[in-house]
Amino acid sequence: MTNTPVKRLPPRRPATAATAPVVEGNASGPTVAARQHLLETMLDQFPDYVFAKDRQGRILYGNRVTIEDAGFDHADELIGKTDIELYPGEISTMIHALEQDLMERGISSLDSEEPSISHHGGARWLTVSRAPLRASDGEVIGLVGIARDITTRKRAERQLIGQAALLEMVAKGGSLDTLFQALFGFFKEYHPHVIPSVLFMAPDGQHLTVGPEAGLHPDYVRAIDGIEIGPAVGSCGTAAYTGEPVFVADTLTDPLWEPFRFAPLTYGFRACWSMPMRSHHGEVLGTFALYSPTAGLPDRKQIDLITFAANLAAIAIMRKKAEEKIRHMALHDPLTGLANRQYFDERIGDIIEAAAAGGTMVACAFLDIDNFKMINDSLGHKAGDQLLRTIASRAKARVHASDLVVRLGGDEFIILLSDLAMDPAAAAARLEAIRVSMSAPVTLDGRTLQVTCSMGMACYPLHGRTADELLANADVAMYRAKDNGRNNLQLFTQEIDTRTLSRLSRREELREALATNQLFLEYQPQICLESGEIKAAEALVRWRHPEHGIVPPSDFIPLAEEAGLIGELGEWVLIEACRQNRAWQAAGLKPITIGVNVSAPQFAAADWVLRVAEVLGETGLDARYLELELTESLIMQDVARAIDTMCALEDLGVGLAIDDFGTGYSSLAALKRFPVDRLKIDRSFIADIPGDRDGEAIASAIVSLAHALEIDVIAEGVETQEQLAFLRGIGCQQIQGYLVGRPMAADALAARLATAPAGRSPV
Ligand code: C2E
Ligand code: MG
Ligand code: MG
Fold first, then answer.
1. pTM of the model as a whole
2. How many domains does one find in the chain?
3. Which of 58, 59, 273, 633 is most buried, by CB atoms within 10 Å?
């Protein structure tokens, strides 16, 4: 037993001087001897260690287990020795001091749990109770003690604590590597002779790749890396294949080990016990195995531990996978699978740093699909999504692994080429090839079409030294490409910079513009050809930019839509137009209709009709003097819903016109169901007439269509007398255009209305 509690008296020995006081007063003679014999027999059969020591810590008595535990046969060998003599070492010294202290103070100590060593030198734990041994006068002359081996319980406790620590590690989500190292350390403590090893299921679900292990031979590890799983592929290959534990008692004879028969003798193991690591859905994630140097099956405790380890590892792996998935989701665009803005932001710093260190160039290109909004609106979002995916895969197919393709949102992409020679022309050629590849025909929703893209590029370090500068300048170049008629690539130059405002900063400026009344309306008259009267005017919004002067709506309406500002902007226009129209009426001018353009997100808002009614109420304008201009693509996004909204607006008494008619995709069948009052022929059809056969044919067709549907028709963009004459000829009764008047301030229009009291226009 322990160093400490060892002491015994020789069996059937007369009581020593030290023990005499204890038996003092007992009966003497054969009765005493019989009693003592009985007592010693009892104590010798008692499984706990019972001992007594004198004041110096010399053993006075030890029962049978105590004698044997010290490695002796007879009590004589033990009596008179101290713990320090029996078990030299730190623990004995400590126990000696503790017992001296107890005797000094004359107190007992119960159930003290103490480390100890056996005579074999093995570590163990005891629970020990000690009481002072007193002479009849009460003087402490030694101590008696009883001790019990609690090593098994202590081990179980420590194992539980170890398991709890591992569980906590998994719960806290440390790295897999750390977890496995801790798990292996745990095994080493309880099963020092076995070697734990982990194999992971490869993504194909058919092979195992080597994971962490704790001491297998490197050649063996190499030999099993990437093995294909199957019904008889060693312990792990089989366990992964069947999803069941496979405990092979002898790797030299078991048929499952046929393919690896070379291994056991060469690498020094005989048994291999493998447990599949499974997700909570039952999916096999890999195997946890123990290699034992001796043949045999694992015992119950080992099986429990392997099961625990495999379960724990599975949880940790699942957690890691979930984390990776979440991280991937946070950094990628779900639609195209491309990296997203956040990923770009995380990486760009390093990319620029690497370029700076290596003296290389980085080309950053903005790519934007031309007229994407129209395609998306007219063919539907599903087709739009499909187009975005196609663009993404075409871009990906043409860049190198070290390059980056990012979807910023909407139809905006960034292509970042790195590790380039300082040659912007060569980079531009590569980007141009990517851009051109986008125009290959694409089939969307059964229709084959061709899309084009605009691109702007800026290079590090020539056109910007920080990520923000590069992005802003590429963006500016892209806008130049759009201005150049789209479908082209522009390289950033300082000259562009001064002329084009970065769209990113423009977004912020637009917010500011709304807040500080930088927007204003102009009004363009529309006349009836027959009477020459101004019947209506279209309200057109402008932005008085503090630095850039008057900005046209085509430059900021799409921006407002993208930035979610269109609702606010559109509402401002509606209120201002209604208010102005009411003011003209109040000033005694002949009532006209005011046309207000509506954008798709505005029209789609759930409370739109209600808002229109409220604005009419607030401004006091009669509903019949308001006409809302809707585009075909806006209506076609969701025809059924659009018809409902249009009917509700019609019920309010508001007029409805289809703007830019002929450029969208409205089917004639659907047109019949729209409660519209007017078609506005797009000015692109008017621009080249007379002379342009197509334009003439389309304009005539639209006019006939309107007549057939018994609705009004107006031609937009009429600039010349020739156009006017042609339109008259085909029966178009109303026109809007520079010929009649450019968009003008409210006062100017009022003057026009006033100077032509009958409303007659000079046309
Ligand atoms: P739109 O509704 O088709 O407006 C007619 C556009 O044609 C106006 O351009 C007008 O200035 C221009 N225009 C009129 N007559 C002629 C002509 O004889 N020749 C030429 N070349 N052009 C002519 P603007 O003001 O630049 O507006 C462009 C577009 O911006 C508008 O097209 C409309 O779609 C949109 N827009 C304007 N104001 C608003 C608004 O308040 N809300 C919304 N959502 N869109 C607006
Ligand atoms: Mg319009
Ligand atoms: Mg128009």
1. 0.49
2. 4
3. 59
